[in-house]
Amino acid sequence: MNPEYSRSTGWGRSIQSTGVRISDTLEELQKRIANLDDERGALPIGLQRSYGDSALNSGGLQISTDKFQEWNLDADTGVIRVGAGVSIRQLESIALEHNFFPSVVPGTGFVSIGGAIAADIHGKSHHKTGAFSSVVKSMRVLYSDGNVRELKPKGATSNHFWATVAGLGLTGIIVDADVQLEPVTGNYFNVQERRSPNLDALLSQLGSADTDYDHTVAWIDLSGSFKGRGVVGMGNLATDTKPSYGLKSKQLTFPLSLGRSVITPLTVRAFNSIWYHKPLKSGEVSINAFTHPLDGIGAWNRVYGNRGFLQYQFSIPDGQEDFLHTVLSKLRAIGGASFLGVLKRFGPASPAPLSFPSPGWTLALDFPVGVPNLESTLIAFDEEIAARGGRIYLVKDSRLHPEYLSKMYPRLDEWKNTREAMDPNHRWKSDQGRRLRLC
Ligand SMILES: Cc1cc2nc3c(=O)[nH]c(=O)nc-3n(C[C@H](O)[C@H](O)[C@H](O)COP(=O)(O)OP(=O)(O)OC[C@H]3O[C@@H](n4cnc5c(N)ncnc54)[C@H](O)[C@@H]3O)c2cc1C
What we know:
Elements (H helix, E strand, L loop, with lengths): L4 E5 L6 E7 L3 H9 L7 E4 L15 E4 L6 E4 L4 E5 L4 H10 L2 E2 L11 H7 L6 H4 L6 E7 L5 E4 L6 H7 L8 E8 L1 E2 L4 E9 L2 H14 L2 E8 L7 E8 L14 E2 L11 H13 L4 E5 H5 L5 E2 L10 E8 L5 H13 L3 E9 L13 E9 L5 H14 L3 E2 L12 H4 L3 H11 L8 H5 L4
Parallel strand pairs: 2-4, 3-4, 15-17
Antiparallel strand pairs: 1-2, 5-6, 6-10, 7-11, 8-9, 8-10, 12-14, 12-16, 13-14, 13-19, 18-20, 18-21, 19-20
Helix pairs in contact: 5-12, 9-10
The protein binds flavin-adenine dinucleotide.
The site of flavin-adenine dinucleotide has 32 residues, from strand 3, helix 3 and strand 10.
């Protein structure tokens, strides 16, 4: 039977790819992968919430993990064995039912466990908990020889474990993982929000929030006068439960037919102004509203129209805050307003060579495709970020040039050597991997 090609995109919808989507059981996959003889290779995919081309494999196989849905919770230890296709949202729901919660959750609940490990995702809690890998006690990975191996963060398999963490699907298919959940007594967050009139005030407010709060984040206004004003959100999980809270929330879906972007400098400025002046939260907030604020609107990525958008997320070490001022002034000069700007502090890095978070600051920005002079500005940023010891978050990326990669990720060769040992026949491939010479 001829393979069926279908089109897909990352969350940014700016790059399209045509590949063959497969949804197999583990046993079927083991046979398929061991016998794979296709130059375009295969790539595991989760819920395709990565923004660029990390989860795309043009002309090759895109292996969905949607059949890996099993879970088994040990209620005494809080360790859950969870299939790679289970979403963070499902994990939260299972965990809460048993008075646990995952310590690391991203800005959307529609991320699979496999995608969370393969990107070593971070949440608002990074300054306290580190990245997602800090709660992964072991994982089972399907190698390209068709065998499934158990990998652990310490011991004989540790180099394969850490190459698979943030390994962007290029070392094997994560089948399931043992994840340590945190015992909790509450089902909502106690939240405080504070306005800051400019970048320095925002940095200072966010920095000091980390002492008293387990979860912190700042929304930053990158429009208008680009002063870097913003609102810091800080929260701790409550220590009691309330019937009115939990995970359930309504979702409105953005209309499919929108061809043109509704994101213009004018609408961005208006939105950011409303956001800055909105009433500040103080008190009880549902888990979803605090941890996954955008999940209330399904397919919000369509607001950018058919051309899509790109997200640019970088980190820079402590002491390099002046670069954030440079970013504001350069974006102002080109009129590069960002609809949504998110600023966060990072704590210690994980041992994974390609893990993104490292101590300091991270800024995530969204731009519609087609902003004049944006690409040359971002290339100048890439160069400066690399020189200052910072890096670009690869699952958000769709445009980085490979020459910057080894400067941003100095342990790249170590990762490549481990990948070579794990996949000597080079069966795992992705569009991003080809672009960045990772595979
Ligand atoms: C609205 C929104 C908010 C976000 N907020 C955050 C945030 O706060 N923090 C953060 O860190 N990230 C955030 N992200 C990014 C997101 O967490 C990552 O892109 C994540 O990897 C997406 O998971 P996924 O299941 O959609 O994976 P996909 O996008 O399908 O894949 C991502 C990568 O993981 C690999 N992969 C997927 N499944 C497996 C598997 N089973 N085995 C091996 N490799 C696999 C793929 O090959 C690919 O390289 C956000 C994304 C969106 C859209």
